Amino acid sequence: MIVAGFGFRSGVSLSSLREVFALAGQGHPPVTHLATAQDKVAALAPLAQALGLPLTGVTPEALAAVPTATRSVASLTARGVGSVAEASAVAAAGAGARLLTPRRISSDRMATCAIAQGVPT
């Protein structure tokens, strides 16, 4: 399982999400799932639908349990986690998952995306 995790601000555009998804995914196996914070699922659903990929909402507890490679002050303040994108990707990829790409940031700074790989079953 290859998961693209997203963090984003309210009012993010689909084009920002697409841009950061393409940036984070460069040089990695194809993404099989998308993930974000549970309360942000509705805003990410249009991208999931456009890509034909399943979307997972990650609970606040699961986000907080994942150590992240990067630290955003905004993310720490709002969510208590260094990167919602990284934490979402790793949490959704399951136990033993590893981060392939730390968060990348869209050019308008509205969205971040990180890629994680789950342990093959």
From TrEMBL:
InterPro entries (UniProt xref): CobE/GbiG_C, CobE/GbiG_C_sf
Span of domain CobE/GbiG C-terminal: 2-116
Pfam families membership: CbiG_C (PF01890)
Record GO biological process: cobalamin biosynthetic process
Domain of life (superkingdom): Bacteria
Annotated protein name in UniProt: CobE/GbiG C-terminal domain-containing protein
Species assigned in the record: Novosphingobium endophyticum
